[in-house]
């Protein structure tokens, strides 16, 4: 009895100790953690590329933590602020926590390569006040632009508006198509200030005052906001998108579009890959040129960036990984397979042979390229502004309240300005 | 061997007892739980006070400048308290307004429905055990599951609309209309939590001695009078508990409503907890100072309600 | 005051029959006690009379009218429950008034009745209190008061004294009897205590396993029990039973000599149970049944002598006054003439007729 008891204790202790012993040798390799979200297949493609990197660098292991987009927007900021940031993360709010980004420059092999090819977008990830240095790698360049369900136009027998059509032209056409075919949503716009910013700029919104200070409400913005307000009243836009959630919550219309319920969907180029999969051969779709206004035919540039954090313990390894991912062949492959636009100037000039077997993709990417060229400088300035969400969020929230009938449009404009000032005060007061 | 093990466990406690004396030993046993409570409840509450009296968008307390009662002043800055539009922080007041209406409707509906259900379930009827369990199942569900179930039922191409259309009716956008979505947040919230209160009231009903009802029968008492003069007065302690617990929970309503309507359309179903969450953690710059101040105001209200509940149950013990 | 008639009352629970056809007549103003061991159906019978339970078969008639389908309130009855069933959240006054308010009686009448009942039961000083603030005895009076104010045709009592201590019980027995005399009311009283039955009843109804064993005045049941069960149930201390065989001059108690008795109409050699009450034994020097004294209980006014007979059977003998007998003494117990009962050995069978 005594010996049996003693043996049991020994066995139990051994079972507890074994994993600890086994874990020891594994610690020899450096582990990098990337917090990553995906719109479509980027996660799979990235994993593939990382596997090859690991083979080439057997002492580095890269873990790709795939999380929902909401985790990036809601949870990651808190982690970063409290010193718990992962080594790297793919983020869309490039400026918000840029003060925590790791300066990659000392760890990169060839700084000049980066500066030549990423000249326009390097400022987007630089912390406030910095004018030099590489702080991140754009995983794509995106551009907001409408995507049209061409099959519906064909069925309705109405011609597609041309490349210089205005937003009013599109509204009329989409409404006609929807009425004829009993489609619930003529125009859908993602519930996001960022999405409306492009059209607003086309109608003359400046977003910044003459002395460079942020200024949200001007005539251009009011015009576009009023259009959207009126469209909800006329049924050109459905309350199912803007009215379905409250506050600052994001609401896309992906499902509605891929189910053929939307005629024109104002979203962006990052949707191409997803729609290729979800729509399949259901109907004919492609991206179209950004509709025009008196001030231009602009969208908003953007894109998620892969950044590293100062708190990481392995900056040298991060540098290696960044160099690998930014290298032309790897970067080209990433874009070819994910159907993303690229910020790499060299690749943009050479062109990328997209793995797009569908004509819709090719057509959309061509339109996207054209849209990139048509971007207004205001759009670039706005995207590069560190606190741009202080401008976008009140736009979403207050316009939504006006659309839902909680306040008049003029009240909404007043409140927007107030909210922006509150936000600036809170963010600026350090 | 077992005796040796027991001695091993005993040894530190005996040593402690020798050091502290038997009278202080109870504190040793309460200490772990107190520590947990202190770290995870009391400490955050104290930190919250710091957040409420500071401003800025930084998470780390040390980087937040002290501003005293400025946040509270801003929250309470209203031209006319009855007019949301005249308030500086109109979204706060709108959510307070929504919450007040929600609490009023939801609590009254739930207390009345729970009482009726408990009365019905107290009778001898077929499948009584089954029904008693069934009403409690929603309480066991996660609030997200509850909301998703109802969203699936209520959405424009959902079950309810399908039934309406099949019977020749019109499709109703339940969750896109301010009044309807408010109505449905009340319904879903009552549905999800009613079982718990039915249980409390049922226990109270079963504690009433059955021969009181027989004496009332011998006294020739009509049914309504039995309910009004005998059942209800004897159930009052439980009703008081249900009322206060229901009020507290209604003020804290968030989970299922956030998933069901997200506070929409517009801000029609945005209640106070969602406002606090969004101001502090979601959306734009995290204005944690305002959110912390708002949460303290809500906490004050809940404190008053809790004291009322303590009073009610103390009176019940008499 | 009302009279009650039960005709062939039967109560079934599914296939289980608990009341097997009971017939009974209760006259106006009579105090009838239903008595029997636990589970005999006395409470069930009372509840059916009250209207709280429905008989499966048979008729209940109050003042000649069949009331089976009438609710409890419509029968003109009032009941005192074993637990008193006072409304705990109401004052005594409200408890007393509750039933009267249901009848929409004018306030003045209600107050008058409450005042009368309170005076009669001496609870006037308790009217403003709640039941929780009363003692057991006070609560019982309030429960009785509640029935008195209703002025019912028949009063029903369901073991009302079982929750009281012994001394209070004795006192309440007397008061209940006095109440009965005063109100001259028809009362039906259920108890398991045969002492209560003997002291209060005009007529006792003995029930066992849902059957009416015997109904009659207390002394009738005492002196002429219809069967061995009633004989053993009524009377304290219990009647002594000895197994015996009928012999030419009396009976032969098993294992002992013949005992001379009066003549009984029963066959020679039949196996019987000889029943003798403790006070009907006397100690003789010769004859009788030999035995040894186990124990003597000295009550002062009487003594109980516990004897083990020579055949091993035990008997209890009551001696008036005090006795010098002690444990171990040898005695001979004889039966007083004309005081023996003979029963068939099975309890269910009627006693053998005495000649």
Describe what this molecule looks like in 3D:
- The complex is a heterotrimer of chains A (430), B (318) and C (355).
- Chain A has 18 helices and ten strands.
- Chain A is α/β, with parallel strands linked by helices and 430 residues long.
- Chain A has two domains: 166 residues, 3-Layer(aba) Sandwich (D-Maltodextrin-Binding Protein, domain 2), CATH 3.40.190.10; 220 residues, Periplasmic binding protein-like II (D-Maltodextrin-Binding Protein, domain 2, 3-Layer(aba) Sandwich).
- A five-stranded mixed β-sheet of chain A has the order 2-1-3-10-4. In chain A, strands 5, 6, 7, 8 and 9 form a five-stranded mixed β-sheet that branches.
- In chain A, strand 1, helix 2 and strand 2 form a beta-alpha-beta unit.
- The longest helix of chain A is centred in the first third of the chain and has 25 residues.
- Chain A is globular.
- Chain A starts with a helix and ends with a helix.
- Helix content of chain B is 72%, strand content 0%.
- Chain B starts with a helix and ends with a helix.
- In chain B, helix 4 packs across helix 8, helix 4 packs antiparallel against helix 10 and helix 5 crosses helix 8.
- Chain C is built from eight helices and 20 strands.
- The longest helix of chain C is centred in the middle third of the chain and has 18 residues.
- Chain C is elongated.
- The mean pLDDT of chain C is 88.
- Classes of the chains: A alpha/beta (430), B mainly alpha (318), C alpha+beta (355).
- At the B-C interface, helix 9 and helix 10 of B face strand 6 and helix 2 of C.
Give descriptors for this structure.
heterotrimer, B: 318 residues, 13 helices, 72% helix, globular, C: 355 residues, alpha+beta, Rossmann fold, OB fold (Dihydrolipoamide Acetyltransferase, E2P), 2 domains, six-stranded mixed β-sheet
In short:
The complex is a heterotrimer of chains A (430), B (318) and C (355). Chain B contains 13 helices and no strands.
- Any idea of the CATH topology of the largest domain in chain C? Rossmann fold
Helical content band of chain C: 10-25%
Low-confidence stretches of chain A: none
Q: Class of the largest domain in chain C, according to the CATH hierarchy?
A: Alpha Beta
Rg of chain C computed from alpha carbons, rounded to a whole number of angstroms: 24 Å
Instruction: Describe the largest sheet of chain A.
Output: 5 strands, mixed
CATH architecture of the largest domain in chain C: 3-Layer(aba) Sandwich
What is the strand content of chain C? 25-35%
């Amino acid at each position: 009895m005594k010996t049996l008891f003693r043996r049991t204790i020994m066995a139990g202790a051994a079972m507890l100790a074994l994993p600890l012993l086994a874990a020891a040798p594994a610690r020899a390799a450096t582990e990098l953690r990337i917090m990553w979200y995906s719109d479509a297949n980027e996660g799979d493609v990235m994993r593939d590329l990382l596997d090859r990197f690991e083979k080439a660098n057997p002492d580095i292991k890269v873990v790709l933590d795939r999380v929902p987009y909401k985790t990036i927007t809601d949870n990651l900021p808190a982690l970063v602020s409290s010193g718990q940031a992962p080594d790297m993360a793919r983020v869309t709010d490039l400026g918000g926590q840029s003060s925590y980004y790791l300066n990659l420059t000392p760890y990169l092999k060839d700084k000049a390569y980066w500066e030549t090819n990423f000249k326009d977008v390097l400022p987007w990830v630089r912390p406030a006040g910095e004018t030099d240095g590489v702080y991140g790698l754009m995983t794509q360049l995106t551009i907001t632009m409408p995507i049209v369900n061409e099959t519906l136009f064909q069925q309705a027998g109405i011609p597609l508006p041309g490349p210089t059509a205005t937003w009013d032209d599109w509204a009329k056409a989409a409404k006609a198509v929807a009425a004829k075919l009993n489609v619930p949503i003529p125009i859908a716009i993602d519930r996001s200030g960022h999405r409306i910013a492009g059209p607003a700029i086309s109608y003359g919104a400046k977003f910044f005052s003459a002395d460079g200070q942020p200024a949200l409400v001007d005539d251009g913005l009011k015009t576009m906001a009023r259009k959207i307000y009126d469209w909800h009243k006329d049924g050109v836009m459905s309350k199912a998108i803007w009215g379905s959630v409250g506050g600052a919550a994001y609401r896309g219309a992906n499902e509605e579009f891929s189910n053929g319920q939307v005629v024109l969907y104002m979203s962006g180029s990052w949707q191409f890959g997803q729609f290729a999969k979800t729509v399949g051969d259901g109907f004919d779709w492609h991206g179209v040129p950004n509709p025009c206004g008196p001030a231009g035919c602009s969208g908003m540039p953007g894109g998620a960036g892969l950044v590293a954090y100062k708190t990481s313990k392995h900056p040298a390894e991060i540098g290696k990984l960044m160099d690998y991912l930014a290298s032309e062949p790897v970067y080209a492959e990433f874009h070819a397979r994910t159907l993303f636009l690229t910020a790499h100037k060299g690749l943009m000039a050479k062109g990328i042979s997209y793995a797009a077997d569908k004509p819709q993709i090719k057509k959309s990417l061509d339109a996207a390229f054209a849209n990139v060229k048509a971007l207004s400088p205001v759009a670039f300035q706005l995207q590069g502004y560190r606190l741009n969400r202080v401008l976008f969020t009140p736009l979403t929230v207050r316009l939504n309240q006006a659309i839902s009938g909680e306040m008049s449009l003029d009240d909404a404009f007043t409140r927007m300005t107030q909210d922006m000032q509150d936000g600036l005060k809170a963010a600026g007061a350090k | 061997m077992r005796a040796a093990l027991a001695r091993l466990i005993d040894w530190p406690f005996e040593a402690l007892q020798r050091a502290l004396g038997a009278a202080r030993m109870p504190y040793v046993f309460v200490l772990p739980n107190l520590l947990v409570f202190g770290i995870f409840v009391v400490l955050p509450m104290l930190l919250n006070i710091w957040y409420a009296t500071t401003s800025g968008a930084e998470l780390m307390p040390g980087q937040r400048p002290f501003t005293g009662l400025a946040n509270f002043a801003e929250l309470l800055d209203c031209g006319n308290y009855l007019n949301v539009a005249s308030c500086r922080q109109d979204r706060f007041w709108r959510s307070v307004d929504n919450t007040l209406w929600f609490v009023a409707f939801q609590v009254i509906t739930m207390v009345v429905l729970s009482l009726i259900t408990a009365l019905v379930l107290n009778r001898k009827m077929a499948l009584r055990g089954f029904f008693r369990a069934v009403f409690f199942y929603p309480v066991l569900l996660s609030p997200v599951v509850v909301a998703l179930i109802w969203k699936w039922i209520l959405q424009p191409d959902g079950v309810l609309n399908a039934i309406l259309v099949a019977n020749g009716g019109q499709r109703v956008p339940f969750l896109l209309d301010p009044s309807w979505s408010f109505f449905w947040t009340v319904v879903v919230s009552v549905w999800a939590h009613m079982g718990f209160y039915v249980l409390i009231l049922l226990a109270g009903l079963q504690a009433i001695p059955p021969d009181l009802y027989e004496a009332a029968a011998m006294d020739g008492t009509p049914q309504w009078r039995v309910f009004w003069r005998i059942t209800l007065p004897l159930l009052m302690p439980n009703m008081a508990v249900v009322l206060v617990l229901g009020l507290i929970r209604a003020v804290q309503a968030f989970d299922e409503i956030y998933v069901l309507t997200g506070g929409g359309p517009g801000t029609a179903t945005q209640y106070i907890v969602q406002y606090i969450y969004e101001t502090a953690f979601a959306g734009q710059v995290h204005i944690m100072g305002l959110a912390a101040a708002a949460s303290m105001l809500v906490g004050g209200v809940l404190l008053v309600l809790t004291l009322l509940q303590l009073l009610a149950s103390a009176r019940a013990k008499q | 005051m009302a009279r009650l008639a039960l005709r062939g009352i039967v109560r079934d629970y599914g296939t289980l029959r608990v009341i097997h056809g009971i017939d009974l007549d209760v006259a106006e103003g009579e105090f009838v006690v239903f008595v029997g061991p636990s589970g005999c159906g006395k409470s069930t019978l009372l509840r059916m009379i009250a209207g709280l339970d429905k008989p499966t078969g048979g008729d209940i008639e109050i003042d000649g009218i069949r009331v089976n389908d009438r609710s409890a309130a419509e029968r003109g009855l009032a009941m005192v429950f074993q637990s008193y069933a006072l409304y705990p959240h109401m004052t005594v006054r409200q408890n007393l008034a509750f039933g009267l308010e249901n009848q929409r009686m004018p306030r003045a009448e209600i107050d008058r009745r409450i005042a009368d009942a309170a005076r009669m039961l001496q609870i006037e000083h308790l009217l403003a209190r709640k039941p929780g603030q009363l003692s057991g005895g006070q609560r019982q009076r309030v429960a009785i008061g509640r029935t008195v104010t209703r002025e019912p045709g028949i009063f029903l009592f369901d073991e009302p004294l079982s929750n009281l201590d012994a001394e209070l019980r004795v006192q309440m027995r007397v008061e209940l009897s006095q109440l009965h005399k005063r109100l001259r009311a028809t009362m039906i009283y259920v108890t398991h205590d045969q002492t209560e039955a003997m002291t209060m009843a005009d007529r006792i109804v003995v029930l066992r396993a849902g059957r009416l064993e015997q109904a009659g005045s207390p002394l009738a049941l005492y002196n002429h029990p219809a069967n061995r069960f009633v004989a053993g149930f009524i009377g304290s201390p219990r009647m002594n039973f000895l197994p015996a065989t009928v012999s030419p001059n009396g009976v032969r108690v098993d294992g002992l000599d013949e005992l001379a008795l009066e003549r009984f109409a029963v066959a020679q050699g039949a196996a019987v149970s000889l029943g003798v009450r403790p006070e009907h034994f006397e100690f003789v020097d010769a004859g009788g049944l030999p035995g040894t004294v186990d124990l003597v209980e000295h009550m002062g006014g009487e003594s109980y002598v516990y004897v083990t007979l020579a055949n091993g059977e035990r008997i209890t003998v009551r001696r008036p006054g005090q006795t010098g007998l002690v444990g171990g003494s040898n005695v001979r117990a004889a039966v007083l003439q004309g005081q023996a009962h003979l029963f068939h050995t099975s309890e269910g069978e009627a006693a053998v007729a005495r000649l």
